[in-house]
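Human: You know discrete backbone vocabularies at least as well as I do. Show me how you would write down a chain together with its backbone fold. No explanation is needed for now; the record alone will do.

Assistant:
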Amino acid sequence: MKISTKGRYALRMLVDITLHQHEGYVSLKDISERQNISKKYLEQIVPLLNKSGILKTSRGNRGGYKINGNPNKYTVGEILRATEGSLAPVSCLEYAPNDCERINECVTLPIWEGLYQLINDYLDGITIQNIAEQCTASEDNYCI
């Protein structure tokens, strides 16, 4: 499993929105400038986050994006699944139930299941709010 720029940039975008939520809706232009991410690339990420219900959109002159609800309710795992798809380390774990023809004789399956559980537990234990709080606690106040 390798996290692409889409997943990494989605996290940076959501943390940026969280850090600037007191300003109201945050524009992609502002996020793009602060994060040094192409606005066009952010525009490709937005539909994935909208579809999963993570973002709220407002159109118009003062439009932009907000996190839909409290940033404490969205985990890194949830965001990465929305942008990357499955976080499974092997293809046979991507769908439940596991329909691999070798499931009953695969001696390595418990290893991959354990790794998958660790990945999910770790990433689902970190919220966007947790990351934002780390940023505000850092001395230079810029961490993304």
